[in-house]
Amino acid sequence: MAKTMISIENLSKVYRMGTIGSGSLRDDFVIWWANIRGKENPLLKIGESTERIEGEYFWALRDINLKVKEGEVLGIIGENGAGKSTLLKILSRITSPTEGEFHLGGRLSSLIEVGTGFHGELTGRENIYLNGAIHGMARSEIDRRLDEIVDFAGVGEYIDTPVKRYSSGMYVRLGFAVAAHLNSEILLVDEVLAVGDIEFQNKALGKMKDVALEGRTILFVSHNMDAIRRLCTRVILFEDGIVKENGSVDDIITKYFLQNSPIELTSQIELPKSILPDIMRINNRENKNQLSVCGNHLSFFNNDSKPQYIFKIGETWKIRIDFEVHNPLEHCIVAVGLVTIKHVAIVTFWSKPKKLTPGKYFAQFDVDIPLKACDIQFAVGISNYERSIYYAEGIGRVSIMEISKETSQPFRAKGSGILLSEQITEIKSIR
Amino acid sequence: MVKETQTEQWVITVSSKHKWLDLHIREVWEYRDLIFLYVRRNFAAAYKQTILGPFWHFFQAIASSAVFTVIFSGFAGLPTDELPPFLFYLSGNLMWSFFSSCFRDNSSIFTANAGLFGKVYFPRLVMPFTAVITAFFHFLIRLGLFIAVIIIYMASGVPIYLTWWIAIVPLLLIMTAFMGMALGFFSSALTAKYRDLQMLVGYGMSLLLYSTPVIYPASMVPEKYIDLYFLNPVAPIVEAFRYAFLSAGTLDISRLGYSLGFTLVTLLIGLILFNKVERNFMDTV
Questions:
Q1: A residues 145-184 closer than 8 Å to B (CB)
Q2: What is the DSSP letter of A162?
Q3: Contact at 8 Å (CB) between A292 and A329?
Q4: Prediction pTM value
Q5: Chains A, B: CB pairs < 8 Å
Q6: pLDDT more than 70, % of chain A
């Protein structure tokens, strides 16, 4: 059985809103007296209520219980203000808990920011030592890893230049390089991967993965579900200061999207009632007050025509657009575009042109493109004589994911790109 | 149910319940490299792109002592215990600036390091130690100047007598350092929450300077007020320092004992305050 590296018991953190005093001298005195004896604030009604805000007290975290085993990479997700960062701050001992306690089975380093404590006047080398020491590394340990760090940061010959002369990219790389080479058994990482260019982010993510493979324990806070998917072995979802969900990566991410997607994640979405961008409207010879066509809804089904919005990798699914025609259309085409939530256009499907009289219609599209795990949004357009008369974008949300581990080849399914290729080519030797 | 068989070997335990005084001294020791690097950084960073580097301390000491000589001794005609005025002011400045930099650097320890303290944990006592050690090195530089000036005066025939009391100078320095640090903690605990107290602290320091024998000798104080005067715990130290090196003024063991007692009591309270502030300071920034 793997060793427990982090054990959190009944941990709560309460902030007092407003700045000075509790409003009553007597309360102030009671709190002060409890405080100097090292007791808890007796005016907090622990466990009596679950409201996040009680009077002037704000429960940033409430009654957190959590165990993390050695070698686990625990992803922590949740909306801003859900308590993720507060937890990291308490675990890294930047601030102390109001209630409860936690135990750590090893040294812990927190990467809440890269390059913490860098001093502009000092050289890269001096800053590596200083930064390492801030994170609790002894000089001899840094000596041993110096070459690795310099190499990873890719600052090479500039290592003896004051860091104030570094480009911001070099600065960040150096900061991350030190952090990534800390040798504490537990690592807390808070969004630091969000800095730097894509190439560096990937390198950093790869490094985190290596660290995880060494059997160290990582807590990883991120809004980047892609990174969470690639790195984590388990995910917890924070909501309003409590651990709302705790489980497998895909399950929790799905649940998170379900409840937090800005667009409601359902199998049927109402389409906006009009909507042409103004530029199109000007070119439109139709009566401007009465639209000749309007979208009703956008819906998704699996192959058995069952409404659904999460599909397995490799599964074929259907998109249906329902719309209403008010004026006769001579040459109507319906189109739907698929765009990932990172704004990468995937494909556009078109209908055949058709002559339509006023009434209700629908168009259905089969999505048989081998997509990898991703989240997709849609753009819906209707045209008459190749002129756009209805257009709406950024609507709907469909998730393609690996629902169970055995359905796909994880190695191929996880590489970069949007499409999944079935091709497996052979390596041939050149003679 | 499978019972957890692991015999928990926790390395770190943090609880909402805490002791009055929990200094993590062992942890501070583990971070000694950091103290060393910070002290070095304070020097390296402060003097990069300067012409005189650490010799600024010479300049400051000489300039302020020279100004004191002209104004307080020359214009105001204040006595200097029969010492050359320049040497008298130099010795007073030396101790006072050591005390005041120990105090000043510790009084802003939380606000000055808020950015760092908000991002990473290390035993917070690292910073006060760093401040005191840095101040000590600055003191050493000035001490070198002071000794050089003594030698110059002696060579030019001015009668100066060193005493065996020089042996207690290390103790004087330790007292000064810890007293400055402790009072700095008081001030940092208060100013962490109420920023406007910083003004009061600055004002208090200049009042303290006037009631310390830096620009005038304690022998000037009327007899009936002398006990009251020496309630200022810095005064006996400055007098003793001057006596040890220049055999001028007084060295009163009981008054030094009072300073020592004052230092110990304030240090204890100061550390308790520091402990309390470090736990939740980040919530009030």
A1: 162
A2: B
A3: yes
A4: 0.73
A5: 120
A6: 79
